[in-house]
Structure formats: C-alpha cells, structure tokens
C-alpha cells in the first residue's frame, strides 16, 4: 500500500452525505459525474480546486446521514487519496472500505492540520505527517485484511481476485 500525499482540504464536524454529494445529483452513479459535485454544498469551489492525491480532513462524525455509497465514490472519483477525521459515521466507514477509499481516524491530526497544509499518510504504520509544519500524528493503522481490500480497489475487486485464485 502506497503512502498518500496531498494538500489538505479541511471540513468541520457532522459533514453528512448530502454535503459530500448532494441528493440532487443522485440520478447517476457515474463516478466521473459524481466527482464534479463532490463536497460542493460544504465548499462550492472544492470540485474545481481538488487535485489528484489531495486529502480531506474532517471533524467528528464525518459521513453521517444516509447510507448511500455515492458519497465515498464521489470523493474517490474526485481524486482524493485519503480522508482523515476525528471520527466517521459507521456506515460511511464501511462504504469507504467497500469502494477502496482509505480513511484514518486521528483527532490529534485533525487538530494539527490546517487547510492547505501538505499531508502524508502511511497506511501501514498509521503515521500522519504534516509536511508543512514538520509534525507527526498517529492514526490506527488499517488492519492487514482491510488493507487487502483497499489494495484491490474495494470489496468487489477483492472478491474477483479471490475467485480467480481458486
């Protein structure tokens, strides 16, 4: 699993799935189309500013609201390499694993990262480094079995690989 590195986009507590991908765009499940509207209700300029590899930093209960998979799909399709938050809504957390979007819980990292900081995340060790400020934080590392799912690109790809191994 690679180290993720990108510019931080910071959001507050209780960012819900409607803010991640507004319901008015749920007439499609095309990832590229969803990416065009990712986070626009939380930050209207996000879709035009985000670049491949950037990292979303959120507060408590990130991804609360509905159970739709569209939210992590939109984030991943927008090019975001990882999401760091103080905590995640449970169904959002699982949906991220299912689609292969790396997520990390670390309240200390969220407090120590500002909008625009360059951040690196090592998913194996759980080390989150704020390159801009030269400080490090610890998140819970992704367990090996979950890393396998993430490395495969999500649960469906992981299942396909397992079937091919038989």
Write the layout of secondary structure elements.
Elements: E1 4-10, H1 17-20, H2 31-35, H3 46-49, E2 55-58, H4 70-77, E3 82-85, H5 90-99, E4 103-105, H6 107-112, E5 118-122, E6 127-130, E7 135-138, H7 144-152, H8 155-165
Parallel strand pairs: 1-2, 2-3, 3-4
Antiparallel strand pairs: 1-5, 5-6, 6-7
TL;DR?
By secondary structure, the chain is α/β, with parallel strands linked by helices.
Work out the helicity level.
Answer: 25-40%
- What class, by secondary structure content? alpha/beta
Intertermini distance: 24 Å
Describe the main β-sheet briefly: 7 strands, mixed
Please write the string of helix (H) and strand (E) elements.
EHHHEHEHEHEEEHH
Mean pLDDT: 94
Strand residue percentage? 15-25%
Number of H/I helices: 8
Question: How many strands?
Answer: 7
Instruction: Catalogue the unreliable spans.
Output: none
Order of strands across the main sheet: 4-3-2-1-5-6-7
Radius of gyration based on Cα positions = 15 Å
Shape label: globular
Pick out its properties.
166 residues, alpha/beta, 7-stranded mixed β-sheet, 8 helices, 7 strands
């Amino acid at each position: 699993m690679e180290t993720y590195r990108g510019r931080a986009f910071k959001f507050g507590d209780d960012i819900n799935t409607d803010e991640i991908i507004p319901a008015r765009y749920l007439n499609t499940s095309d990832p590229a189309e969803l990416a065009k509207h990712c986070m626009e209700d939380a930050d209207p300029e996000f879709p035009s500013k985000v670049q491949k590899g950037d990292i979303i930093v959120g507060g408590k209960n990130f991804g609360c609201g509905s159970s739709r998979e569209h939210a992590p799909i939109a984030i991943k399709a927008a090019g975001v390499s990882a999401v760091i938050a103080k905590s995640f809504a449970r169904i959002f957390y699982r949906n991220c694993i299912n689609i292969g979007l790396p997520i990390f819980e670390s309240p200390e990292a969220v407090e120590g990262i500002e909008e625009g900081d360059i951040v690196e995340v090592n998913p194996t060790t759980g080390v989150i480094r704020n390159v801009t400020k030269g400080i490090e934080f610890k998140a819970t590392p992704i367990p090996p079995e979950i890393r396998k799912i993430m490395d495969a690109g999500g649960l469906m790809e992981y299942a396909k690989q397992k079937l091919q191994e038989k």
